[in-house]
Design goal:
homodimer, WH-like_DNA-bd_sf (chains A, B), Arc Repressor Mutant, subunit A, 2 strands, Tscrpt_reg_PadR_N (chains A, B), PadR family transcriptional regulator (chains A, B), elongated, mainly alpha, WH_DNA-bd_sf (chains A, B)
DNA sequence: CTTAGACCTTCCAGTTTTGACATGTCAATC
DNA sequence: GATTGACATGTCAAAACTGGAAGGTCTAAG
């Protein structure tokens, strides 16, 4: 149950936020780490409230509800951080395709990897640019947000390099018999 | 719907396999790419059969059913490879924790990253050892399986290095005022 | 002969995720 | 005064995923 802790964690760090606020955070700062839809966020807020981990601290203009973490909520976040060990999710649609690329003509397969390398390069550059632009504060969210952003940059860089390597590997196999016994 | 294409893809490549065979493949060769439980695999086989993408080609000893792809199935796999563009799944429990590590004492946070780095190092070494051990054939599954295995190795290596870097960053912030103006 | 272990499938109950649809308020602009 | 757009919440059905339980068959070793 990670969505629950993502929501809870944001509320604890922000010390008060509405579902709408959280949605924006999911879209922006948590985008590379955990995604969530509206229905998930609002649903989870209701559950967290029912379980006494958060509470409605104030109500604002448009039916806005500002949630704040209870002591039980802060304890639970801490417990999750310390005790629970996440199993790394091993699911990757891009890689799944690579696995079956042998079903295409070699030239198409290599084109796919070249495309992939280009896309990853762009993403890496995008994050690198972001790193330059953003002025970081001294708060926790800034510090740890910076760490995850750097992770994203490294991830895309790794991926780009791998795609280039893989493309070269395919090239080697596609036309190998050229210099096998050329003295 | 990627599970569907993972199952379909394996059946196409193997040119005939039972649910049991597929399960083993998911556990071994597809482990770093896509995971699936028994109920998912058998369920998907039923659906694929109903949709005419695969068919029971033979029945074996223990109620074993050997599935084979139909022409429609092969077309669908190809269509998926060429047309559909996967959206990279952005969900990572380990990173999610890092995002909230500011809730712990700095020393605990650093310990978490050190642990993480160690775990990633072990995994990387595990895959590296596997690369040495395995004797690769000349078939497609071998070639492309080799590519994804190398991806896994690079992924864990990147992750280890990042965790070490992040730990150092935290250390810098934990005790920064030591040599600011030490001539 | 018997028994352990690999082989093999089916079903299910509960949870999570997805992707809408529905509803309404407030602030600023035209 | 009307319209647009950001703000804000809520509900739902369908799909996907989890984690088993249950039941049965063949083979080889002891």
């Amino acid at each position: 149950m990670s969505l629950r802790h993502a929501v809870l964690g944001l509320i604890v760090e922000l010390d008060g936020a509405s579902g709408y606020d959280l949605m924006k955070l999911f879209e922006i700062s948590l985008a590379n780490v955990w995604t969530a839809t509206q229905s998930q966020v609002y649903g989870e807020l209701a559950k967290l409230t029912a379980d006494g981990l958060i509470e409605v601290a104030a109500e604002g203009p448009r039916g806005r509800k500002e949630y704040r973490a209870t002591d039980a909520g802060r304890d639970e976040l801490r417990r999750w951080l310390v005790e629970e060990q996440p199993r790394p999710a091993r699911r990757d649609g891009v890689l799944l395709k690579v696995f079956f690329l042998g079903q295409l003509e070699p030239e198409r397969a290599r084109a796919y990897l070249r495309d992939s390398a280009a896309t990853m390069g762009e993403r890496r550059d995008g994050l690198a640019a972001l790193q330059q632009e953003v002025t970081w504060g001294d708060d926790n969210l800034s510090l740890y947000g910076r760490l995850t952003l750097e992770y994203g940059r490294r991830f895309f860089a790794m991926r780009k390099e791998w795609a280039e390597w893989a493309e070269a590997e395919l090239a080697r196999h596609a036309a190998p018999p050229e210099d096998a016994d050329r003295a």
